[in-house]
Every structure is written in structure tokens, then in C-alpha cells.
Amino acid sequence: MPVADDSLHRALGLTDDEAARIAEILGRSPNHLELAMYAVMWSEHCSYKSSRIHLKRLPTKGPGVLVGPGENAGVVDVGDGIAAAIRIESHNHPSAVEPYQGAATGVGGILRDIFTMGARPIALMDPLFFGPLEDARNRWLVEGVVAGISGYGNSVGVPTVGGELTFSPGYSRNPLVNVLCLGVMPTERLVLGQASGEGNLAVLLGSSTGRDGIGGVSVLASAGFSEDGAEDAAKRPSVQVGDPFEEKRLIEACLELLDQGLVVGIQDLGGAGLCCATSETAGRAGMGMDVDVSAVPRREAGMEPFEVMTSESQERMLAIVEPGDRAAVEEVCRKWEVRAAVVGIVTAPTPVGGGRLRIVEGFGGEVLADLPAASLSDDAPLYERPLAPPADLADRRADDPAALEAPGDCGPDLLALLCDPTWVYRQYDHQLFLNTVEGPGGDAAVLRLAAPGLPPSRRGLALSTDSNPRWAAVDPRVGTALTVAESALNVACAGARPVALVNCLNFGNPEHPEVMWELSESVDGMAEACRELAVPVVGGNVSLYNESAGADIEPTAVVAVLGLIEELDRRPPGAGFTEGGTLLLLGTPDKSLAGSRWAVERRGHRGGSLVGPDYGALRALLVLVAGLANSEGVVTGLHDVSGGGLGLALAECAVRSEVGCEVESVADHAELFSESPGRVVVCTDDPAAVEARAVAAGVSVRFLGRAGGDRITVAGLLDVDLAEATEAWRGALPVALGEPAPA
Amino acid sequence: MTSRVGVVVFPGTNCEHDVVAALGSLGAAAELVWHGADSLAGLDAVVLPGGFAHGDYLRPGALARFSPVMEAVARFAAEGGPVVGICNGFQVLTEAGLLPGALQKNAGLRFLCTTVTIRVETSRSVLTSGVAPGTELRIPINHFEGNYTCDEDTLARLRDEDRIVFRYVENPNGSVDGIAGVSNEGGNVVGLMPHPERASAAILGSTDGIVLLRALLASAGLRSGSGPAALAG
Q1: How many domains does chain B have?
Q2: Which of its termini does chain B have fewer beta carbons within 10 Å around, N or C?
Q3: Which domain holds residue B159?
Q4: Which pLDDT does position A548 carry in this prediction?
Q5: ipTM (interface predicted TM)
């Protein structure tokens, strides 16, 4: 094993200190292959070396939690013998250089994280963040990313039931493409990614291995973008290429293998490829593994061992099977036309130093690499990077948008905030599996809890992804806490009780102390809100180095709350009005404009300070609202106040249901556009019943006005024609993308 | 005796369980049939469901027509057995020559998942027997290649022979003459782009697909000798 030359580790993205640590672990200098393996596994993307120290402050325990963070997906017990697996990931950097394949392979990767747990994927969601659409490159990114999600998700056969769409100049060269997957399984099918049992076989399933995606986690995902477009374009070969048909067969084959009890452990191949899957499965079980690099089916000739081990070729899984089951496994794979190759053998741990991961050229042949299996993940560096609040923090907080001049007519501002996401989601199959009770565009997606092989259940699931980079830019701690509150309220509006949360933390360059401060504050805000609302964090993903030309993105903590509906026997009321209904506002009115869409997007004002959630009031509101959504005939419409404030909540209800409104009691533009969550607009034919329930729950309730007519009117503030608002809402996205407005 | 409906599964098919569930909720015994099967013996009707058979990388249905089961489907159809192709199944039936015409990319060159209104144009098919022409139904569509096309002679023949089964009320994809579904000469083979199984429960937003699925089961019942009533129309 020739020793690697002195500077190779830097080219692979390792620091001098990290290289020294590797030599210490091995007791000798590493060779090229070993260095390449450490480089991908110790990359920021795989090792979370900058964020781990903060993430451990999140509350991860709860009565229903079956699997918490650290596995491929979080798993919660949702009752009736059914468990739900959930995970969210980012595919930001690949999507920035190659939007179609970047987004498509993001979908493929998250699906594998779910079915590797034994769950059938039943829903996807995609929070997307782009720069303004005036820029042609941003339009290209939007078109490509949406087409990639559509092309892969629809074909692989998993419905995309929701997501988010956010525009801000900070994402111009570095869009964020997050993707969430939810899966369900009979609880007893739950399986972990462990390679236990000496002599068991590691079988590589699925695609052959090519040179695509080499260095995806290190070259691409763990570095920012420069000002030089050509340099970024040169990273395109590090983006993988997706094959949804292969993935579809892989899903069916793996679920059949699990149903037949033919695997003892299974793990997907994602970032860092075979290197990650073999070392993690062996490491988790405290075992070792011999991996025969020559047994790996290859897409092209002449590949070096380090290329085979670190390739991120998509649609591959590693199954650990007992030797006696090999023929049965191969039979299932033949049926589904899935390639299966024995590439490894589980080995006993050595008396000192635990399990060894040995890369060999033919079993019993030349040893190309030999290292402690667990060292690739467990011994990864842990950095406590310096953190510091931005220098202008005090000035920005003092600069409150309350001082902005009040508009004489709030109508034009309101119209400019309306944006219908239909252009995006009608490119996604959001109905497959006959579970989608409420699809994209509402407060939360609502799904029946059903899938082939599941025990029957009357329950339902609600799912919402949320983020608010505007709030987080003002105050990452409070802004993130408020985002958790909003997400919980979204599932409550669907009649659900929040049971678990996953997060995707998208931040800038961790070597900037301000970015690490934002990350740390966000984690603290999330931890506080999750603890107060008793919602455990069951998984997460961190994406750093989201920067271009030296500028970091706004702190973007995406949270997804999973809610449980005890009895889903009809559609929840949804965001809309019914003619003649009475409009009430539940929750405490607020006037803060800091970080609001009105202040930031309409006035370019990014200062002020946020007030954190009143958790006592929020807890009462969550229970009240879920109860209202579940009670037949009490409310006819329900929508929480969030981005765009009360004004936008009213307008969205009006355009969605094609029923106007006449609102009397909103004090001023601040009350109209303030966004702090904890408020819900309700349309009801029985206001006395709603008021009685609110009073009993200790939630403040206020009369707003009446639904009906063909205008959206808020006395003294705005009076807009409903048809004009509908046109603005429907046309916003297509027109910005250069297409004709929908008829 | 309950009607037995076979739901064909190609690798890449993804709506098979939905069709089985929707037919099952109407009392049928629906079962999956693997694409490698060479016989449909014992079945009273066959559905080719939606999805992406064999990945559809070449052209939707272009590979699926070579699956062994398609010979059995052709025989079953020739014997008068009810065959319905939904979405990808429609594409497969046109590629296999069991239905005329072809499905090309949507006029807007984008995938479309939305609910549309279609009009039943004839009762002379296994999917619409007993359904009054002119009936309007709200049914989801979900396709990239749903733009039906055929030459003028074929179109004239489809019109003359009352084989246009459904038309879109508002054409979403550029289909010639607004065609959403057609049948063969005998009316026993029907292809349509909309998904009736997705409109089979009130909680999902529409129950308008049930009338079509019931008509199919009635046709299957006639074949099995268990049918409730004679075909109307």
C-alpha cells in the first residue's frame, strides 16, 4: 500500500490537522484510497463536524418515538400497529449547478432513506428557495428544479403533496432545494442499517457504479460558490444522474425482501456511496467488513478503487443477508429486474480496535485499505467553531419597521403579496395512492393513513413544511421558535395533533462566526419551541456553505411537523370562506412588522425585533383549532395567519373559495400585515358556538366581519375587487416566468 | 359470484393498488397480474393501470407492448373481454394496436396533475354502458403525454362509429377534438387519460369515477354470468 503524497489530503478537502488525526488512528500514513474514504466521510456534509455540537441540544425523546436522529430516518408510532418514517434533506449545491438532476436525485436519495427503514414512501414535500424571477438564471433554476422533482417523483410513483416556495435575493446563485419524504410501515417491519452476524453477506442492489457524483459531498456540498460561473459549471460532473425506473424497482424489491424476512439490515447508498454504507452498517453493529472492490458491478472500465468506493451513483442499496438466504434474495431481485452482487462479508471485531473495514481485490486477495470501520463516522472531527453575532445587530434591532409610513391604501401591497403556487404543484402527481385528502396549497397536507400491507386505520396524518428566513434574519432564535409554532398551527388547522418534527438547517459558511451564531441561535429557538410544545425532533439535516461570491444566504431553518388525526372521516374545512359566514379571529392580535413580507418585500426594510411565542396561549390554541377542524359543521373555513399577515390570510381564503369578505375591525396596516403566528381566521355559521369554545379554552376571540360578496374589504384600509385579486394571485408565478396568465 | 378483475402490473406501473382498492370498495375481486403472465384465464375484465411501464424512457408504452401479458390481453380483447387502459394503460393499448391513435406530449409541454371535467359521449362501451351521454364527470388527470392524436380518416371513423367515449369540457392538453378516451369497434376495449379510481371517495374530492367503475364491473359480470343487468344502450 503506497503512502499518499504530502499534499493529496488538501486536494481531497481535508485539513492538515485532519490528515494527522487519520495517521494517528491508523498508526501509519494513509494511502490514497484510505485518504479518499476519510475525506468523503469527514466532509461537512457527512460528518456534521461543525453542527453536531449544537444539534445535541435539540429534544429528541418522546413517548411515540421509535427511532430518533442518527439513523436514516426518524420513526414514530402513529397507532393501530403502524409506524411513520420521516426525513428531510437538502440537495442545494447539486441543484445550483444542474437543477434538473440535482433536484431529481434529491428525491431519489430521500426515498431510499425511507424505504431502507422498511417503510413504503407515501408522500414527498419540497421546500424551495430561489432568487427573484427577474433574473433569467433564476427562472432557469425554477423550471429545472420543478421539472426534476416532477420527472423523478411522478415516475418513481410517490406523490408530492406539498412544500413551500420562497423568493429572496439571497438565494440567487445558491438556491435551496429541500426534500422531505414520509413513509409508513407495519411497526414490526422496522429495520435498522446494521451489519450484524459474522459471515453474513453484504449484497449491493440496484444500479451499477459509475464515475458520477464522485466528490459530491466534499467538492460540491461542502464548499460555497464563487463569483466565477465557469468554475461552478465545472462542478457539474460531481452531480449524480437519476433513474427513477431503477428506483421504483428497487423500492418494490427491497420491500418484498423485508416482507419475506430475507435481510438482517439494509442501508441506502447516498453521499459517500459504498464507503459510507459499508462503514456505517459495520460500525453500528460493532462489526467489521471485507469489501471486494472487484465484485462491484461497474458502469465503465478502468475505475480506480477510490472511485468505486466513493462514487455516488444513484439507486443503490446495501442489504445484509445470511448466506443461506442468498438464493432467495437473488430470486426476488430477478423478478424485479434488480441487479444483486455480493460485495462484502461481515467480519468479527478484532480484540483490540473493534471491527475493521478492509477493502480487498477479491476476497482473500490484496488488501487495498484497512481501517477501523467506526472511525469513519465516530472519529470524525468535531468543531466548536467560533461564533459571534453580527456587528450591526443592535442597530438593526433598533430600526423598527413600525416607523415606516403607513400606506393610504393597503390594496396594492396586498395584491403584490398574492402568489398561487399551482404552476409548481400541478406538475407533481399529488394524488397517487388515494390518500391525499388535502393536497398542496393549503395550510398542511392531509393524508389517509393507508398503504398496501398496512393494517386498516381510521387515522390520518397532516404534514406541513415551514420556514421564515425573513424572521430568522431579524432574530434567528426567536424567528425559528416562531417557525416551529407556525408549523404546529398548520397541522392543527387540519385537525391534527403535532407528534414529531424534522428539520433541515440551511446556512452559509460555517467558517464565518456570524453564520455559526445564526445556526446556534436557531437550534436554541427550535429546541425551546419543541420542548414547550412537546414535539420531539426525530431527524434533521444540515446544509452549510450556502454562499456565493462571499455572501451567505439568510439563515433558513426549515421545519416539518407531522401531525396525527385520530379519526379522519371527512375533509377538514380548509382555507376558504362560505357565503354569509361570520369571520372570527382566534388568538392574540399583534402589530409587529419586523421580518414581515410587507416590510421586507414591499419596503425593503429588514430591521426590528421579534417577540417570541406565548407558549401557554399557543398550546391552548392548538387544541382548540384541531377540535374545531374535526367538529362537523362548526366552522366552514380555517386558515392560520402567517407570511403576509392577517391581510393575506383573508385574501387567500377569498380567492381560494371565490367568496369575498367585509372586515370591520382591523386597526391599521401594522395589524393587517403583522405575521407573528398564533392567530387563526375562522369562518363559521355558528359564531356563538365557536366563541363559547374559545372562551372555555382560554383563547381570545374577536369578531372580524362577514364573508360574502365579490370584494375583499377591510374598513379604512383596503377595498379590492375579488376578480382582480384572483387574477393577481393566479397570474403571479406564470407571468413572472414569462408565460401567459391562466384564463 | 363476484366478478374477477385483473390489474396488470408492469415494472414501473404505480396505480395498480389504487385501482384494486377502488374496485374492491365496489365489491369486485380485483387481483394483480404480473406482466410476465401469458394467460388471463378465469378473469372477467382486465385493467391496465397508470404509471410508467418499463420506465417509459423511450416512449410511453413502447416497451410494455412487448411484455408477454400483452398477447394474452389481445386474445382476451378479441374474445370480447372488457379491457380498460387508464392513463399509461391507454398509452400501452395504442402502442399495442388495440386502440387507434397515439398520445403525444401535452400542448403546454408540462406534466399536468389536476382535476378536469369530462363529458361522456356514448354509452356504447364497457366503461360507460348505462351512463347517459352528456353526463359530465369531475375526474383527475395526471400525465405528460396525454395529447391524443390520430389521422383524419381515423378521427372520422371514430366519430362515425361512436367510438369517442369521453371529451374534455375544457381541453387541457391539446388532444384532437378534445378526446379524453376512445374505444375499439366492439366497445369492449376502452382507453382514457383521466383516472376514475382517483374519483372514487368523497374524502378525496370526487366520487364521479364510481359510475364508470360500476359500469365496468357490470360488463365483467355479464361475462362471468353474474351480472346484475343487461348492458343498457
Answers
A1: 1
A2: N
A3: 4-230
A4: 85
A5: 0.94
